[in-house]
Amino acid sequence: MIKLTVNGRAHAVDAEPDTPLLYVLRNELGLNGAKFGCGLGQCGACTVIVDGAAVFSCLMPIALLPGRQVMTIEGLGTEAAPGPVQRAFIAEQAAQCGYCIAGMVMRTQALLARTPDPSAQQIRDGLNPNLCRCGTHMRIIAAVRRAAVSLRAGAPAKAATQ
Amino acid sequence: MEQIARTRLRRGIIITVVIFIVAAAAAGALAWRPGIPAIAPPGRGSFATTEIARGAVLVALGDCAVCHTTMNGRPYAGGRGISTPFGTVYATNITPDSDTGIGRWSLAAFRRAMRDGIDRAGRHLYPVLPYPHFTRATDDDIAAMYAFLMTRTPVRQQAPPNALPFPFSWRPLLAGWNLLFLRPGVWQADPAKDAVWNRGAYLVEAISHCGACHTPHNLLGAEKGGQALAGGDAEGWYAPALQAGSPAPVPWSADALTTYLRTGFESAHGAAAGPMAPVTHQLATLPDADVHAIAVYIASFMPPGRTPLGGAPNGGAPHGEAPQTDATGPATASPSSVADLEAKPIFDGACGACHAADAPMTHAGAPSLALSTVINAPTSRGVVDVILHGLPWREGHAGPYMPAFAAALTDAQIAALTIYLRARYSDRPAWQDVNETVRAARRQEGGT
């Protein structure tokens, strides 16, 4: 059994230590926000936050995780009460097919926690590891800007990262 | 007797004092350089198109953009911090902007910077600008590089001030450095060698300055004499030896090097990482003949091959990790059991999707880690840096990619993985200082 802390809740998972966190999130814990895209750390659809930093959960064996805090998009808010970054992505209608968006939201959340007022270049560099095949990049960047403004204005603290 | 001894002593003191005074005066005289008058920025019409085109090739060969461009920034506009053992030096803006770039520099001022390391105003430049190499370039080539740079789009961008502690912040000190280490003189061909080798030698020594990273440096930051290309350090990244000490399991041929330099990847060696990646982006744009000449020159120093762990060097299946399969674990090498227990799940879960024996990436041509230069290197720094930083996407460039693991792995996990990789994929002795190397690499994180 390997102990994980996800969105503040402790779990004990019966899985091999090299099992990717993504599989455990989706198949064991029912947290389906993070998506399987490439399984190679190339697309970012599986991005979650570990100890405040965005990581690819497909390349994160659970052996690495005891004692560390995992946050998934389910930890940022709910459909009824989305967090500030989620609200910004909705307001800008940043999703086309939506497959990449959970990863984009998590990478944005981690970026803004470290860089509350990012420049255009910092947004581009920060989101660089995540791909969107639909091509909604302009809207995604607008959503990041909107989220930054709303977080700086002290939006509901519900979605604060660890 | 006593009197003679006293006279000798007195004479010795006088001679010493005189030497000091002369040396101080000489240093002062050497350190002071006059400014060269500013000019009105020359228009594009001042330069022949053929001259500009020749300069474009030389500037790419000289990798000027590698240091003088920030990650995804405007080309040649400077601002990139180069970390050195003495502190961080910020590359200057070498676009022809009048105020923040070199727009008001005459050819004479540019030539003096390239040959002597003195800027237009007469200030000493730091030898992180590889003028000890550029001083070997011909006047014609320096003029062509000037023509190319002066016809780029001017970018108004001031480089941040250097972060150097005293006394390194005091530039006149560099007059002494130059006295010790700068050997002026244009490069001379070796009549015993053919034209291609000599072209390669000129490019490597005078323009591409490979030794700036691949030669070990002394305590004062100068390349060590007699150890050319014996392996060094590039902003903390391990720069492998390019001569007899090359740790590459498959010896580099001129053809393999040409492919590597032009594409950032070679199927029996792997991918360019760290500061070498943008170097290959520059070389990708060049005429084949020049890159091939560099490759011929470098390959002429390479050692005869050794057989990599569990595989024929060439011809055989490059992914044949011999008897090592994930099911049975390593057969030829046995990692210490502690590192193995901790690291094998890390490798399988974090690295295996691409680097396991039958992973999709291997079918796309990536070699087994047993062929990796960094895993067979004398220091673990290369492995640690690649794990931390990966091989990032760069806007506008195709090339090898690896995700960064700096956020995913703790220092202890990186150390365990590094020890495991060495034991599993190389028959060379275990590294002794992996934990310290990981800490040092972390300290420098973000510097590149």
What does this entry look like structurally?
The complex is a heterodimer of chains A (162) and B (448). Chain A has 5 helices and 5 strands. Chain A has helices at 21-28, 84-91, 101-114, 120-127, 137-152, and strands spanning 2-6, 9-13, 47-50, 53-56, 69-71. The longest helix of chain A is centred in the last third of the chain and has 16 residues, at 137-152. Chain B is mainly α. Helix content of chain B is 42%, strand content 4%. Chain B is built from 17 helices and 6 strands. Chain B has helices spanning 2-31, 49-61, 64-68, 107-116, 131-134, 139-150, 173-181, 195-207, 211-214, 254-263, 276-283, 288-299, 337-355, 360-363, 381-389, 411-425, 434-443, and strands at residues 81-84, 87-90, 232-234, 237-239, 265-266, 270-271. Chain B has a two-stranded antiparallel ribbon with strand order 1-2. Chain B has a two-stranded antiparallel sheet with strand order 3-4. In chain B, a hairpin with a 2-residue loop joins strand 1 and strand 2. The relative contact order of chain B is 0.09. Chains A and B meet through strand 4 and helix 4 of A and helix 13 of B.
Short summary of the structure?
Chain A has 162 residues and is an alpha+beta fold. In chain A, 33% of the residues lie in helices and 13% in strands. Chain A has a five-stranded mixed beta sheet, sandwiched between helices.
Architecture blueprint of SSEs:
The complex is a heterodimer of chains A (162) and B (448).
Chain A lengths: L1 E5 L2 E5 L7 H8 L18 E4 L2 E4 L12 E3 L12 H8 L9 H14 L5 H8 L9 H16 L10
Chain B lengths: L1 H30 L17 H13 L2 H5 L12 E4 L2 E4 L16 H10 L14 H4 L4 H12 L22 H9 L13 H13 L3 H4 L17 E3 L2 E3 L14 H10 L1 E2 L3 E2 L4 H8 L4 H12 L37 H19 L4 H4 L17 H9 L21 H15 L8 H10 L5
Antiparallel strand pairs in B: 1-2, 3-4, 5-6
Helix pairs in contact in B: 1-7, 2-6, 4-6, 8-12, 10-11, 10-12, 13-16, 15-17, 16-17
